[in-house]
Amino acid sequence: MTTVTTLTALNQQFDAAFNSKNTAAIAALYADNATVMPAPAGQPVKGRQAIADFFGGLIQAGVIEHNLTMKDAIVTDTLATQTGNWAAAMIGEDGVKQQFGGNVQVVFQKQADGQWLAVTHIWN
Question: Where would I find the SnoaL-like domain in this sequence (predicted)?
């Protein structure tokens, strides 16, 4: 399996975990010391448990239908940077579904066991 195929699979795993509200599965996709930098200008979130809690907050706030789409990847032996788009939705107080999304960049690092884990994740 190529690294790009692996990254695509990781995106699918993230979306499946998010959309099934499984914050432990989301956190498992990140390195222990990973950093998530949310938009707009949110405070950086560092570490697996904090990342699980952060995404849990988004899920509790009603974010649904998360979807990551990779547009480009730069890959070395131990690092991979993915750029692309993200999309999601929420049901407003009026009952109307609101779609939103933007750009995303995720940096993955190959671990000693060969697994790729996210080390930095930023979006706008």
Answer: 13-117
Do the Cβ atoms of 79 and 88 come closer than 8 Å? no
pTM for the model: 0.94
Q: Are 69 and 55 spatial neighbours (Cβ–Cβ below 8 Å)? A: no
Rg (CA), the chain: 14
In angstroms, the CA 93 to CA 74 distance is: 41
pLDDT at 99: 95
Residue range 3-123 in CATH 3.10.450.50: yes
Confidence band of 39 (pLDDT split at 50, 70, 90): confident
Triad 93, 98, 102: Cα angle to 5°: 135
Domain edges within the chain: 3-123
Burial class (CB in 10 A: 0-12, 13-18, 19+), 29: buried
41-72, pLDDT tens digit by residue?
789 999 999 999 999 999 999 999 999 999 99
* Residue for token pair 């671990």: 111
